[in-house]
Design goal:
The complex is a heterodimer of chains A (230) and B (137). Chain A is built from three helices and ten strands, in the order ααββββββββββα. By secondary structure, chain A is an alpha+beta fold. Chain A has a five-stranded mixed beta sheet. In chain A, α1 packs antiparallel against α2 (59-86). With 137 residues, chain B is mainly α. Helix content of chain B is 69%, strand content 0%. Chain B is built from six helices and no strands. Chain B has helices at 2-24, 31-54, 56-59, 67-75, 86-96, 114-136. The longest helix of chain B is centred in the first third of the chain and has 24 residues, at 31-54. Chain B is elongated and about 100 Å long. Classes of the chains: A alpha+beta (230), B mainly alpha (137). The interface between A and B is large, with 51 and 41 residues.
Chain lengths: 230, 137
């Protein structure tokens, strides 16, 4: 979860998010170098006392400041392409979860083995315990086994929503009449929060997503509890 | 030192000969070798180079663990006969959601409790769904 006044990205909880953080750091380095170079050039030019009245063109410098940005773009594009293909689907999901966006809650279905369906509403302020996150806690969390490739199918029942979990590097639009697919993998045990990311009405800010990554035994016990309660 | 000078002068002579030859290639049909062929190599070769990136999703498998084996062997779970695939889930979604029949849900007013209101609306929708199912049957 993000801490107050946090500026950087959240700690990664999936391999893909780790790669995104590396890529972000790489591109940020390039951008800072370019910005510092530009600021230095501006300072030097502004503070310079010399004027060259007969300056008409500069073929060599124009070639240099065309070729070097092209090289910089290639340096940025290669890791970007690698990450783009890495975020593509995995070919052997072990579990499939369908998430449906409603106004204003999410409902989830686990239908691989048994039919487990539940709604996930935001906990109102009055129902929060001490230490709980305001506007982020839900009554029923999405429980997943850790270290498992999960396929998340996202859709909506009314208007467009978006299912997001920043710690896992996931965001996908939930469009009514369309089924979008996400590859999800939690590499550590923990609780990961997200919020709806597409304006969907009055309570758009009040339909959070909570994923709880647990060991497989805990997942099995949770499934049993959900089946018994149904 | 004189050997070094000889080598560098021979290298510079070779370089100037190659440059002169390269410049003559720009004339007439030999423009194909200077311009066309490199472009074709880049376009075709680029897709081979891209294959190196696109194969990443198949080469990289971060976790080798299979949870379905754990669930089946340890807890005796059995997968359904019809596996859950994107296609059959989409068919289910198409049947459940009628995108042309959509009602605007009124949000809670500031003096209304959001969760109670949403529960009421959920009950209404459930009733309407049941009525639709019974009338459909």
């Amino acid at each position: 979860m993000a801490t107050p006044a946090q500026l950087g990205l959240m700690d990664a909880a999936s391999p893909v998010m780790e790669e995104m953080i590396y890529f972000h750091d790489h591109v940020m380095l390039v951008l800072i170098l370019i910005t510092c170079l530009i600021f230095y050039s501006m300072l030097v030019l502004i503070s310079s006392k010399y004027i060259y009245r007969f300056l008409t063109d500069g073929h060599v410098i124009e070639t240099v400041w065309t070729v070097i940005p092209a090289i910089i773009l290639v340096v940025v594009a290669l890791p970007s392409l690698k990450l783009l293909y890495l975020t593509d689907e995995l070919d052997s999901p072990q579990l499939t979860i369908k998430g449906v966006g409603h106004q204003w809650y999410w409902s989830y279905e686990y239908t691989d083995y048994y039919d487990i369906e539940f709604d996930s509403y935001m906990l109102p302020l009055g129902d929060l315990n001490k230490g709980d996150a305001r506007l982020l806690e839900v009554d029923n969390r999405v429980v997943l086994p850790v270290d498992t490739s999960v396929r998340m199918l996202v859709t909506a029942a009314d208007v467009i929503h978006a299912w997001t979990v920043p710690s896992l590097g996931l965001k996908m639009d939930a469009v009514p009449g369309r089924l979008n697919q996400l590859a999800l993998q939690c590499s550590r045990v923990g609780t990961f929060y997200g919020q709806c990311s597409e304006i969907c009405g009055a309570n758009h800010s009040f339909m959070p997503i909570v994923i709880e990554a647990v060991p497989v035994e805990t997942f099995e016990a949770w499934c049993d509890a959900m089946l018994d309660s149904e | 030192m004189s050997q070094y000078k000889m080598v560098t002068s021979q290298a510079s002579e070779l370089l100037s000969q190659l440059t002169a030859r390269w410049k003559t290639l720009s004339s007439g049909t030999r423009a194909f070798l200077k311009v066309g062929l490199p472009m074709i190599i880049m376009v075709v070769g680029g897709s081979y180079g891209l294959e190196r990136f696109s194969s990443l999703r198949y080469d990289v498998q971060f976790r080798k663990r299979r949870i379905d084996k754990d669930l089946e062997e340890k807890f005796g779970w059995k997968k359904k006969e019809e596996p859950v695939t994107l296609e059959n889930q989409f068919e289910t979604v198409k049947k459940e959601v009628d995108v042309s029949d959509w009602e605007n849900i009124r949000g809670p007013r500031p003096w209304e409790d959001s969760k109670e209101f949403q529960m009421k609306m959920a009950e209404l929708r459930q009733k309407r769904k049941q009525q639709a199912e019974t009338s459909g049957q």
